[in-house]
Specification:
542 residues; alpha+beta; 2 domains; 46% helix; ATP-binding
Length: 542
Amino acid sequence: MPELERPISTANRVTNFINLIRNRKGAFIKRMEANINSAIRAIQKLTETNRTPNRPQYEETLRYREGHVRWPAALDSHLEQQSATTPRDVENISHISTPPSVTSRAIRKQRLQQQHKPELISKQRGAGQGQRRNVLKVIERMKKNREQQRQLHAKLKEKELHIMMRQGTPNWEFLHMINQYRSRIVFRPLQESDPVEDHQITVCIRKRPLNKSEFTRQEVDVISVPSKDEIIVHQPKVEVDLKKFLENKRFKFDYVFYETCCTELVYKYTAKPLVQTIFEGGMATCFAYGQTRSGKTHTMGGDFQGKTQDCKKGFYAMAAEDVFKFLKSRKYKKINLAVFASFFEIYDNDIFDLLANKAKVHFLEDGCHQVNIVGLTEKVVDSVDEVIELIDRGNTARASGNTSANRNSSRSHAVFQVVLRTTGTDRIHGTFSLIDLAGNERAVDMNPPNRQAKMEGAAINTSLLALKECIRALERKDAHIPFRGSKITLVLRDSFIGEKCKTCMIGTISPGMASCEDSLNTLRYVDRVKEHRATYKQRTTS
């Protein structure tokens, strides 16, 4: 009958399940009986041979593997071979009817096991816990590093998606490619604990952060600083079929300062090591080169708050402060040196004294090929505050102009000099020149493109070209170096070929995509100075 088929099938399944339980129970009982019998035979064998275990044998280490116990060798060899025997089997031995002598001996063994078992287990656990702690520390460290990498990638992804989702964002494809490239870089930027290296000519690069106007234009940052001596330019390119791609160009220098580095840190690795040179009777020069609004005047003169410049945070004031510290030190206190300061600019290949209402002065070269500036004002200074006052006066008088890149662009090369003279003899002991070069300009950047602006730009580019030609000639080891091609090259001549001289060149670059070509030109320009340093070393060591 169909209505009885379901109860019958259910009863059959229950019957099969009960039979399965019975079979498993029977197998389990047989296995337990076999274990008990093997233990009884082992104890009887031990009784027949009158083997009494010694105490030292019970002090062997108990080894636990996968939940089973391997007892000490003193119990007997048969128990060592029975890997299936468990502690519960041994505990059940006391309930088996055996002769009194066998029972008492088994109880004695069990008591000895219980006495030594906690001590041995605690020792093993102590050793194991120490290893576990070390492994856990390594695992935690790896987890922390992975978490940091995930957070970094998540931030980059979030920023990338945010830019891509904004309608009208230009060049988001290049931004996506740059972020993908950066996600594979392990960044190791310069740290304050890194050592300061000693070079005759130090060559470095400083990258500034994106400014307000670049943020407004939604510029893409195309400069990466993976390490303290390396910089990468992600140059955007477009193929003939309009497919976009990047050319990633790497440069290496002595130091590369990323955008969040403060001026104090830049000074520590660049100009500060040069101060000792002038106290040892030498000449030190530090000059900044780069396109307009790349951070040259900010580095040399100090931070800007609107149109007001804080001169205390620039290289001029920092160098003066270190000069006075050296002057008061025990080593140089006995030399009797006086500190003088001068400030002049080179504008349209003419020299103007910034401390004397921009009076025009002249270059003269003596028989020893030493360049002297006739009529230049030198002020005696006794403190850093007096130096800062002179810097303020000079910056106010300095020539500036309006370009499309900078409303207050420096249109001249500014030279601030700290001179040490021997008291009484007026002899020059050492000179420290800090030079803020004018920004290299293109004619299309002039705003408005009037005649005066074009002449200023031509004069600036001519003087910078003369400096480049001198560097090329030095690199080629030419017999004649064209230092007389410009006034600025005459000022810098002793910095490159002087016997007791040390020089530092700081290339400043803008990170925006619109300034990519100018940044590459600056890097190539500075790289030539680095090549000259290699030939200079070969020439001085041979």
